[in-house]
Amino acid sequence: MIPMLYGTEDATTVLVQMTDAHEEPSLPREQELICASCPDEKILLVAVRVDNWNDDLSPWPAPPVFGKDTFGGKASQTLARLHDEILPCVRQRLAHPDDARFLIGGYSLAALFALYACYETDAFAACAAASPSVWFPSWLDYARQHTMHPQTVYLSLGDREPRAKNPTMARVGACIEAQAELLADAGKTTTLAWESGGHFKDSDQRTARAFAWCIEHMM
């Protein structure tokens, strides 16, 4: 996994986002949008490129949802490397490491990974999950059986996503509402934002809004 840093190492707000090559061109713009929304914050965006999106970010193995690509279920290994190797290295580069707060977020399967990470570890102060893949098989069973560590959690979904032709993907609307209810019942500071359009519209802007909301609402 390769971390890419956008912003200032003088930051006290560190945003962690799992990504891959297709998202990289939009990351500088995403960081600019976040900074514009939070002008009083010193922000560092740490984008961590994974080798295989479906394998490295899925919490457990699952069959293909579309096409032939399966899900390898290697999120636990990815999280271990993130927690034990990458975050300590980032912290060493910060000018004020003792004052830093780390948030995790992402888009699509990376947003599901962010939720998973926040159920598995208390390393993050907030979770910014934009269009998370909460349709993933058995995800809600897992979420019901685990405790969300950070107090602040943002969820969003495109209003056309529940109309997907794929029946598994079309479950996402009911699943995101169930996820939001779980968080609200647990007393979390949370919201479910409905965006305009389908899953592939404005992912960088949606992710920027997710992070900005978390920064604004963190306890």
Per CATH, what is the topology? Rossmann fold
Order of helix and strand elements from N to C terminus: EEHEHEEHEHEHEHEH
Number of helices: 7
End-to-end gap: 31 Å
**Cross-sheet strand order for the largest sheet:** 1-3-2-6-7-8-9
Q: What value does the Rg take, in angstroms?
A: 16 Å
CATH superfamily: Alpha/Beta hydrolase fold, catalytic domain
Overall, the morphology is globular
Number of domains: 1
Q: Look at the helices and sheets and give the structural class.
A: alpha/beta
Uncertain ranges:
none
What does this structure look like?
The protein has 219 residues and is an alpha/beta fold. It has one domain (2-217): Alpha/Beta hydrolase fold, catalytic domain (Rossmann fold), CATH 3.40.50. Helix content is 38%, strand content 23%. It contains seven helices and nine strands; from the N terminus they run ββαβαββαβαβαβαβα. The protein has helices spanning 27-37, 53-57, 75-93, 109-120, 139-145, 172-185, 203-217, and strands spanning 2-7, 13-19, 43-49, 61-62, 71-72, 101-107, 126-130, 152-158, 189-195. The longest helix is centred in the middle third of the chain and has 19 residues, at 75-93.
